[in-house]
Amino acid sequence: MKELLLLSGLGVLALVAEIINARKLIYPFVIFGLLLNIGLCYHDLGSNESIYGMLRLDNAALAFTILFSVIALVWFIMAKNYFSDETNISDHFSLVLFSLVGVFLLSSYTHLSMLFLGVEILSIPVYILAGSDKRNVYSNEAAFKYFLLGAFASGFLLLGIVMVYGGVGSFYITQIAASALLPYGLSEKLVAIGLVLILFAFAFKMSAVPFHFWAPDVYTGAPTSITAYMSTIVKIGAIAGFYRLYVGVVAVYAQYDFFSSYLLIFLIIALLTIVVGNVIAASQSNVKRLLAYSSIGHAGFIILGIAMISPTVNFTTWYYLLAYCLANILTFWVLIIVSKQDNAEDISVFNGLVKRNPILAGTMTVGLLSMAGIPPLGGFFAKYFILLDVIGRGYMMIAIIAILASLIGVYYYFRIIIAMFAKNPIQTATIEIGSFTKLLMILVSCLLLAIGIAPEYVYNLIF
Amino acid sequence: MEIFILYKAILVLVVFAISLGVAAYSTYGERKVAAFMQDRVGPDRAGPFGMLQPLADGLKMFMKEEIIPTVSNKFLFVLGPSLAMLTALMTGVVIPWGGDITIGNMVFPLQITDINIGILYIFGVVSFGVYGIMIGGWASNNKYSMLGALRASSQMISYEIAMGLAIVALVMTTGTLSLREIVTQQSGNWVNFIYQPLGCLIFIICAFAETNRAPFDLPECETELVGGYHTEYSSMKLGFYLFAEYINMFISSAIIMSLYFGGYNLPFQNYIAPYIDGNILSILQFGCFFTKVLFGIFFFMWIRWTIPRFRYDQLMNLGWKVLIPLAIFNILITGVLMYALGKV
Amino acid sequence: MLLSQYIFLFLSFVAIISALMLVLDKNPVHSVLYLIITFFAIAGHYLLLNAQFLAVVHIIVYAGAIMVLFLYVIMMLNLNKDIEPHKKNIPKVAAAVAAGLLLLSLTALVNGAEVNMLPAARNSNIGLMDNLGKTLFKEYMLPFEISSILFLSAMVGAVFLSKKEIH
Hints:
The complex is a heterotrimer.
Chain A: H1 2-19, H2 23-44, E1 49-51, E2 55-57, H3 59-78, H4 89-108, H5 112-130, H6 137-168, H7 173-181, H8 188-205, H9 214-221, H10 224-248, H11 258-282, H12 287-307, H13 313-342, H14 353-356, H15 358-372, H16 378-392, H17 396-422, H18 435-453, H19 455-462
Chain B: H1 2-37, H2 53-63, H3 74-90, E1 100-103, E2 106-109, H4 118-139, H5 143-174, H6 179-185, H7 192-195, H8 197-210, H9 222-225, H10 235-260, H11 269-272, H12 278-306, H13 312-340
Antiparallel strand pairs in B: 1-2
Chain C: H1 3-24, H2 28-48, H3 52-77, H4 89-110, H5 129-137, H6 141-162
Helix pairs in contact in C: 1-2, 2-3
């Protein structure tokens, strides 16, 4: 309950600050609030608190909350520029904070109405944030596309929830799961349709192939800070929500006939996402678009991991998200600084970055290497754990395809790295960054390295 | 059962006739009131004191040439005034006009139907009423009509919110949505106005805006928009729009009286009731209610001829920045007081 | 057949026909009016399910407020056939085929699905005002409160998108 009140309170506070003319105070309050939230969650680990029976703060929920709070913290520091516009500062803050409430609901719901509310609270602010560069026609296009398709996906989600309710007669996840084991009171067909429709809705939110068509345009059109937000926090929300549903409900229905076809659909989606995301990313020259497609590929890996439902699925999902989001934020951070300086987003802006600012080049390299899955960075172990699960379940072919696809990933990540280190800069002016930014960048890079070196320590810390 | 259905059918016809009759004589009343306020005589040629003036007006409406603009959308052009009239007449269904009349062992309530969500029903119909104006204004294919229609729709939507919030507070104190129950609660008791003065005020202001009456008659503001949404209308279709406005006025004052001023209850009814036969009491109640409603209509006219029209931005400011916050404040106060007085 | 079944068939017929006309009619104002008819038909379905509150609120909110805003925008834009850019037929056909396939598979799946609800879900008076209120403020307290955040964020967004930038 405390976490929920804290997050929504921060959002309201940002609005109140506009009224009482205390816009300068929002930023420190938000940072402090997120730190407090991380502390609260860490303190609550193991408490298994239930909020009105609609939310349950079990360890997975708290782990995801800690995850998105950490990422949001880094994001807020990264996106400081985005919040420099005096006229819109409190709108931006409150929209972001409200969408964090959505992520919180998605990572802790036990009732399908909270699932729907979570998806909506997460999405609606992000639709608006995607269009927050009001004078840029691409930003408008991004917002509009995202909104229309997102509304469509919400329709599928609702239809799915209704079908599940029709089949089981309850919205509570525990009851839906329990009725799988009962001999009566269940309409298998309705549950099957419902779960598949919900899967489609989530596939849209996670930008999984073939529901990914919105993602590249929206990611490119939106302001870069918001793109970073969408490819990290929004993804955490969607995946946490889906993880809860899959582990809590779908997996329980494993004995039913429809489960095998469900799993088939799911695996096809996961594989397609990995392959299509990486293959198309390889042909991009715009870095923002490249990162958009690569984030699709990463989403594929995560849902492949969820599909395996190994005993440690909560950790593998969480760990992959952590490694991916940290690396992603780092690369976006560098991209924002570099593209702002040069006013372009092509790969060529990274040419010879090491000569213009070695710290930026270094952090970018760490982020890209982690996403490419090079040991000993976090990204490697994230992929390794998931592939281990896949092979453990006997899906040899899937593992091989996934590895091949991520090798394509290595190719395009290295294109940027090569551009940074081997090519001559087009513009020679050095890029200045503040010492605080520098420090934080190095810190996050070290964190990425640390979780790669000692994953079992992270595991013991949270799970 | 047959008698019951027959009775309901007759009652529907009677309410229909009364609404139209009151609306017709409201036009006469309006002119007389205006004349009184401006120290004139008003209509006095047709019949004694000009009493037959509404008939003459009606006849004129019917005899006028019917014009449908060539570039307009004919179906929608006719649909507009019809919808306005339809929605105006539909609201009267849930209003309790008096107590029960007992003949033999059959009880005939003086209310067409007592649905348990009466207030919400009224809201539904009122919120639908804006279509008549919008469709008519758009179908005329005239810029003045269009502007009038846009003004009307935004005004009605804006004031509906404050109206709804004002009613929420009333529903909190009464605990029911049935109009009949709200009226019976007020018998032998303080009227709701005493408990909800602010809510009542907001409701009345919103009722003025919803009926497009002065000072909120911007949709048909003749100094700016010629005739507003009914610029292109002539003959009885114009008559329908004008009639709908007067019926709306009649119905809204009936609703205001039922919700806040005791409805059909007589003053000191508890002291009188034991000495009178039930049926006579019901008829007296009907008379009392009718008097109250007529006063309400007079009040509408009084305001029209004494207070100047708002400017459009003032209207919107009043609706969104004053009435809605006030209505929310009213809900808050009501809630706090009810909790403090242990009425929850 | 019971009377309610006849009413159900009639309302469904009206709803489907007017929904089809909504899509097929070339005049956007007509489309809005068809959508309003659809809403009324659906409100009728709610009444059949004994959900009076939902029916009336459906009318007030959708027909009374949201569709008015739709109409407002359409009238302001003054959309006509002439201005509307000509769309290619292939996407239309593709969309129709895709939607048709979805319809086909959903009907095929739902058709013959046995519906045997838990007793708890069978309370037919849940749609009445007092029951609804009690459920909303007791069991569904949290979603009720949380939805305020949803609406608040939507409002902030609307204000943010429509307010003038100071330069």
